[in-house]
Amino acid sequence: MMESNPNPISSSLLLFLLFFTPTMVAPLGINYGQIANNLPLPENVVPLVKSIGATRIKLYDADPHVLKAFANTGVEFIVSLGNEYLAKMKDPSKAQSWVKNNVQPYLPATKITCIAVGNEVLTFNDTILTDNLLPAMQSVHTALVNLKLDKQVTVTTAHSLAILQTSYPPSAGAFRRDLVNCVTRIVDFHCKTGSPFLINAYPYFAYKGNPKQVSLDFVLFQPNSGIVDPQSNLHYDNMLFAQIDAVHSALASIGYKNVCVQISETGWPSKGDANEAGATPENARKYNCNLMKLIGQKKGTPMRPNSDLNIYVFALFNENLKPGPSSERNYGLFKPDGSQAYPLGVPAINAASTNSSSSGGSGSTPSASVPLPPASSSSGYLAITSDSVTSLSTVQLLYLAPFISLAHFVSFGYHL
Questions:
Q1: Measuring CA to CA, which residue among 400, 406, 389 is closest to residue 214?
Q2: pTM of the entire structure?
Q3: What is the residue range of the signal peptide feature (predicted)?
């Protein structure tokens, strides 16, 4: 049951925040997850989003309460369909019904610009999910065409960085050989429909996996000597840019050099378990504040210096019902009461916890209830829960290459 807000935001403060203009000039995106039972009502979230200068939001569903609350704010939305709906969305009639019920009613007041169909599907190694992905995307796009919405709303899907077979050096980026055909068909769909290629990238995992070898400054955008790509001679002073350019190289390797790449998730936890190195408020502050500063400077990557960064920070709130290690529940820029999880350099406001019935914001989905994501991807990425370096994927280990000797890799049983 919804409760009334005992501490409403004052009208004067709300007015200030709505017209507060941060220093950044490039669009900042934020992920708005709702796997929690203590989050503010969506209307109280609007000034929080404004306070950090975010102009784009990615939802993990199409929550009608959120979409209504952000009407006429100018904030752009990516809404999502979970993996559990891919089989249904293959049916054109069901896809059209979903779009009519969950997208069309909110346009144009709420600026829904994209629908993300599925999340990190290809790295679940589930043949049925993989086979359903592109047909579901195509059906949703066809529905948009039929409803004459395809000029304002595109269709995409978000991928884990683990779809890469090679990621270091960035110029050698390549997709997993077993996924090349599938990825190629998806990218061809993007090119034909003008939709972005979404990737979830977390330098935090590389540091967590081997904090003694990975440079903390390199992953936190702090001053450091960086690395030089031996093939391109491009200099990288942070890991995220290297990851982004590895994706650019992978796309070029299959014949697509001009696809719009967006980072649909990246972030750093402010708290973790004893074995989760680096999960502190100070490191989270450095990562996210430095990242937002780079976005505001309109600074591109070494491989794409003239392209604006299209990045969605993970996440808006700490989410108390997420499974997995403590870090999974502590990626938020804000606590549920609206206070900052750590200093963000913007005005603080108070938003009472009123949305006690929320457990994922899934009221708009075709089913009456939505199961929580599996623990291995509870925040939209394949989590690393072991403190053993041997648990890291080949992709993650490749990112440690500049910091770990070849002998270390051989001892872990990996062959570069």
A1: 400
A2: 0.82
A3: 1-25
